[in-house]
Design goal:
alpha/beta, 5-stranded mixed β-sheet, globular, binds 5'-O-[(R)-(carboxyoxy)(hydroxy)phosphoryl]adenosine, binds zinc ion, acyltransferase, metal-binding, tRNA processing, ATPase_NBD
Length: 393
Amino acid sequence: MLVLGIESSCDETGAALVRDGRYLLSNVVASQIEIHNRYGGVVPEVASRQQIAAIIPVVETALAQASCSWEDVDAIAATYGPGLAGSLLVGLTVGKTLALARELPFLGINHLEAHLYANWLRPQVDAAIAAPIPQEEWRYQSGDPLFPLICLVISGAHSEIVLVRDHGDYELLGRTRDDAAGEALDKVARVLGLGYPGGPAIQRMAQQAEDAYAQQKKSVKKARNVYRLPRAWLRGTYDFSFSGVKTAMLHLAEGATDAAHEHEDGKPSTQYTRYTRMGEQAAQTGAPDIALLAAGFQEAIVDVLAVKTRMAAQEYQVKQVILAGGVAANLSLRTRMLQELQPLGIRLSYPPIDFCTDNAAMIASAAFFHLSLGEHHGMDLDVQPGLSLPFRK
Ligand code: KG4
Ligand code: ZN
């Protein structure tokens, strides 16, 4: 079954063709990062207008790159939530209209669930050699993640630990009580002047700090602990809280900026707190300390995500953990998760970097599994900006 997937939930416009939920024929993503970088974050009104400009060329390019015609396509799927209403409307309307015009089945897809299904995608070279999957074998193919599994969903707006017993069977074990991990990374990066999106920028700066330490024959671990930032463990739960560590970072960054300013003026600082003192110290020693701050902050977030996910995997005795969402692209998190899980014999999988952040291949993949269950949607399907994963009650 060949599915055309369309993704437009935020600031990326994507179209992809995926066979049997796993084999990628094409994946096209038009990003608006440069535009939103000017504002330090996504401007919804700008995002939806850019979606309109990009979507038709993106769909046409996806078909061309897959060397497919409309006759080859079996179904069309588009994200209907969660996300920005204006952006979602563009992809959903285009998807429904194309399905109507081509008389194809249409399916609206939950963007978060699609992030999970990015773990079912194979490298593109496999598509050429893979035989079509017999319809009755849609549930499992060798190389797929194994149920039951624990999924750590970490995107710009979500941080959740989810027990997945089977396709479509989700139980929420824990969620963030305030900021999502990605949100905290984005906000802190903005304050540190590192631009948008924050996750990759923080990762780059942290890497600089670690490289500098390695060159001086000092341990990388030390670089991550120069600024020992607070962790909210919320023991006895699988919930997260990242607002405390974010606020600590904001104070540090503020202190750094204030101190830099005061030193330029030649005036002594009048107000000292623990944070401004640390910030002043950072400002005095110059740019490398921004890198050390980034390393400390990334470590604080990775620490909590990795330990709590490992604990959930142990409690529910799963053989597999998967990572899903933009923050799953983080190399430090991937390494740390491996360190937590390998000694326990628990398998870890995560999508290739390009399939962690928003893309349409994951939409087409998720659609295959729902279509195989006999589901589809009518033309009256509306966007649901606040949609969550369909958890069992
Ligand atoms: O899943 P995603 O592309 O969009 C949403 O559905 O929200 O996730 C975006 C988030 C942003 O917060 C971004 O900073 C973060 O993923 N991100 C990363 C990395 N790449 C993207 N965070 C940490 N390390 C990365 N390499
Ligand atoms: Zn996403």
